[in-house]
Design goal:
The complex is a heterodimer of chains A (63) and B (429). In chain A, 51% of the residues lie in helices and 0% in strands. In chain A, helix 1 crosses helix 2. Chain A is an all-alpha fold and 63 residues long. With 429 residues, chain B is of the alpha+beta class. In chain B, 33% of the residues lie in helices and 17% in strands. In chain B, helix 2 links the parallel strand 2 and strand 3. The two termini of chain B are 17 Å apart. Chains A and B meet through helix 1 and helix 2 of A and helix 8, helix 9, helix 10 and helix 11 of B.
């Protein structure tokens, strides 16, 4: 989950993912967005890696 | 022009709390809020006004054709709308430093932030410009401004109130809520907002559960430790200790997933907001506030794996909260790690770490939102705050807003929680 904390990996990801999202980023934007992806990756690294297979996501919170 | 509007106009050059004034209108019936006034964050639809959600990108949209459910409910209860309030662009922030219209200023110290993203609403209430104000809370956007501005706030249970006519931010975390200067008005406002709305598919199918006037009641209360103790600054610790004493909270409870839940809340928000704005990012990202432009662009690229894993953590968080609420009725924690930040602050030192200030403001609130539980904020005035308030979160089990409000009332009754009209809001005018 934390692989994109690495700058080179994050930049490669941004370059690959941006066109898929329909975003045509210039070099300065790629650099700035890469920093933000690294920050998000840092957050993702805080999530527990191993969760039970039957633990369903909760997009609609239903108590 | 009403006297209330004249006062807003006189003070708003200092506070920048309002972005729009609206023609007052109210229901003809004598109702609970007759004569009371309210403001609404400018992401609530108000018929005749363009809903901009703090963004110039939406400024050319046509005006809303009808009121949002929350605005309509307050008007039906007799409250009079006066205007729309300043906010972080698309609600993406904790400080209401909106570069398009300028920052909202804290009425208790004009050099300080009003908090965000509902900062204009909290500032308007703190300055005495309105009696109530509507905000929204996705990661703390009611609770942080309530703390910074020294007013009472309520984020009800997720799904409790209709979000019809509210511009979204992160749909699985967005909450409608409000600010007031007393628990009685907060509770009355909350009751006015309740009611099943068949037009909101995300609202829970539950009947209204009016809380009426808050009353003191025995509550088994505990302090949240761990993450919350780790990042609480001196003033936040002092406020928490005062609240704990008044609520007889002598035990400390742990929420082991707090840090992971904070990350989960952020990642869910990024993914949902990024997708929400993806089309706008293609054509209009250069018009976005610099504080959110690259975050939102990165958010649109967030891997689905992160989002789904974060939603699964949310399920675990709910289980941990259920365990705590089997033992306690109420959990308490600071609403912010420090008093209001000076506008423009980039980093802060917390727990020996240098942290971006604008995200640090939400470090106490963000771990709790994914659980969906109701949380009231009571404003305390610790000596170490040097005249500035720090709020305390009063966290109740799902659907038990009455417990959160009762705790706020007990702190108010004890004389330690209060929301005086700010001295800097123009008594000289």
């Amino acid at each position: 989950m934390s692989g994109l904390s690495d700058k080179a990996a994050a930049e490669a990801y941004v370059r690959a993912a941006a066109p898929a999202a329909g975003l045509d980023l210039d070099q300065a934007e790629v650099a700035a967005v890469t920093v933000q992806v690294q920050i998000m990756a840092g957050m993702a690294a805080l999530l527990p890696e191993a969760l039970a297979d039957d633990l369903e996501p909760a997009p609609r919170f239903e108590p | 022009m009403s006297a209330a509007h004249t006062r807003i106009k006189a003070l708003n050059s200092r506070l920048n709390a309002f972005t729009d004034l609206v023609v007052p209108r109210n229901s003809d019936v004598a109702a609970v809020f007759s004569g009371k006034t309210f403001a609404f964050k400018n992401l609530y639809d108000f018929a005749g006004l363009t809903t901009r959600a703090g963004s110039i990108i939406l400024a050319d949209n046509p005006p809303a054709t009808e009121d949002s459910a929350a605005v309509a409910s307050l008007i039906a209860a007799g409250a009079i709308p006066l205007g729309a309030t300043n906010m972080d662009e698309f609600a993406f922030g904790f400080t209401t430093e909106n570069s398009h219209v300028g920052p909202a200023h804290n009425p208790h110290d004009l050099s300080r932030s009003a908090g965000g993203s509902s900062g204009g609403s909290a500032a308007a209430v703190a300055a005495g410009l309105v009696d109530l104000a509507l905000g929204t809370d996705t990661n703390g956007s009611i609770r942080v401004p309530a703390s910074f501005c020294g007013v009472f706030g309520l984020k009800p249970t997720y799904g409790r109130l209709s979000r019809r006519g509210v511009f979204p931010f992160s749909t699985s975390l967005d909450h409608v809520g409000l600010f007031a200067r007393s628990t009685a008005e907060l509770a009355a406002g909350y009751d006015a907002l309740q009611g099943r709305d068949p037009c909101d598919p995300m609202q829970a199918d539950r009947p209204p559960e009016p809380v009426g006037s808050p009353q003191a009641r025995p509550l088994r209360a505990a302090i949240l430790g761990g993450h919350f103790a780790q990042y609480a600054g001196e003033a936040a610790q002092e406020a928490l200790a005062e609240a704990a004493q008044a609520l007889n909270a002598t035990e400390t409870a742990e929420l082991p997933l707090a840090s992971a839940a904070r990350a989960a809340g952020a990642l869910i928000t990024y993914a949902e907001a990024g997708e929400l704005h993806r089309q706008r990012l293609k054509t209009d990202r250069h018009r976005l506030d610099p504080l959110i432009r690259y975050r939102l662009t990165a958010a649109a690229l967030a891997p689905a794996q992160w989002y789904l894993q974060a939603q699964r953590v949310r399920r675990l968080l709910k289980e941990q909260m259920d365990t705590l609420f089997a033992q306690y009725d109420l959990l308490i924690a600071p609403a912010a790690p420090f008093p209001a930040l000076t506008i423009g602050t980039d980093t802060v030192e917390l727990n020996g770490e240098t942290i971006p200030a604008r995200s640090a403001a939400g470090i106490m609130t963000q771990p709790l939102t994914p659980a969906g539980v109701p949380i009231a904020v009571a404003p305390l005035w610790p000596a170490t705050g040097q005249g500035l308030p720090v709020g305390v979160q009063l966290i109740a089990r799902l659907w038990r807003e009455a417990d959160a409000l009762a705790a706020a009332f007990m702190l108010e009754q004890a004389g330690i929680a209060k929301a005086p009209i700010a001295a800097h809001s123009g008594a000289d005018l």
